[in-house]
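User: I'm putting together notes for a lab meeting next week and I want to include a structural view of one of the chains we've been expressing. I don't have a solved structure, so I'd like a prediction I can at least talk through. The sequence is below, exactly as it appears in our construct file.
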Amino acid sequence: MTADLAGGYDLVVFDLDGVVYLIDKPIAGAAEAVGQLRGRGTAVAYATNNASRRAADVAAKLTGMGVAAEPAEVLTSAGAAATVLSEKFPAGSRVLVVGADALRDEVREAGLTPVAAADDEPVAVVQGYGPEVGWSVLSEASLAVRAGALWVATNTDRTLPSPRGPLPGNGSLVAVLRTALDRDPDLVVGKPGPALFTTAVAQARAERPLVVGDRLDTDIEGAVTAGLDSLLVLTGVSGPADLLAAVPAQRPTYVAADLAGLFRPAAESAVPPAAEDAGGWRVARDGDTVTLDGAGDPVVALRLLCAATWSGVPLSGIKAASDAAREVLSSWRL
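Assistant: Thanks for the context. Below is the predicted structure for the 334-residue chain, given as structure tokens.
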């Protein structure tokens, strides 16, 4: 058994946006991390809420970035949504598709008939991210749902990570309909629902799976819901302040700056850490206040502070007692 974090698991399920790549740019070290896992015989899977590409297209994109991937290893919310609809409605049923061509293709391949207008009397509306989604199709979806169509969202991620910063995600588009209809979707298929993860585990016949993600409200909450260990990497959406304020349902087993954390001892990423694992930092708690002193790896400081904030210290109660501590807290906007 390998002594590093990844060595304790027989399957690693990666989120994509914010973990392996940012839009169309690979994150440094991702290809090497996947290659190292494959080299030691660890199974790999990819689970994404992005419904704008089919599994084969995602695998091709990853391969083009130097990240080894097979279509069968990719689970998308588009494919999952189409499967759910095919189980609920007879073959040939009309489904109004809000999203990219990939979602439309998944619906068609599932034996259903994609349509674009409420006048086609669809039995359901399925809504996924698509960069060309606009007022016209959202209006048709609104009319269809008001007429009784089942409303299924592939996911409700408010944002997508990008090299320029967070961009509006499917959740922002779902919010348009939520405002117009004054209600939530009937079903959200993707993360934080556990289906993508449990499917990956079943396909790999894994006994010790690990989920790696960048979002607390989807990747990590989905892992917690599925009863799986998880690693939060700080290369995407959720940052240190988010982790410090995380509710129990969104708390990861581990946290690391990036995927290199997979290949360090698990104890160096466990959150919260053992009290003696300070790495040059010192924390002292006094009631609702915790003081950070010393210097060292910011992720170690983050792990130490999680022990305090997860047990009742508010973010406003975090204080700095050294220049390095002040610099770290400032970089976290605390």
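A couple of points you could mention at the meeting. The first strand starts at residue 11 and ends at 14. The radius of gyration is 21 Å.

User: Perfect, that's what I needed.
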